Amino acid sequence: MADKYRIKGRNRRRKPGETLRSLHSDIRRLIALAFPVMDQHHRESIACDYFIDALADPDIALKVRERASEKLDDTHRIPLEFEVWTKNVERQNRAPAGKRVREAEKDLIDQAKTEVTVTGSH
To answer: Long-range contacts: 8-14, Cβ < 8 Å, 24+?
Structure first.
């Protein structure tokens, strides 16, 4: 039975419109079923490989592989960040120029406040 789940995990690909969270959960489930007696460290490593292979975009997969961790949860965060950045850039590119400038200024102010708060708390 474990072979069936190994094959499913290896061949798993992200479906159009599928969230990364859903893909992450499914890979974790398949790995647990495919390798029930393997130690957690090795299972996580395999899960990372399966997760990266399942990403639909080969460019993103390469970037994730370059930055990937040995833990599935950490590896999962990388393409999430890329998606957020991409959506943010797309949103900014659709906004009128004046609005983009105001949003950029607001982001800089928020970042400065965060840095002041962080450095002030040390």
So the answer is: 8/34, 9/34, 9/46, 9/50, 10/50, 10/53, 12/50, 12/53, 12/54, 13/54, 13/56, 14/54, 14/55, 14/56
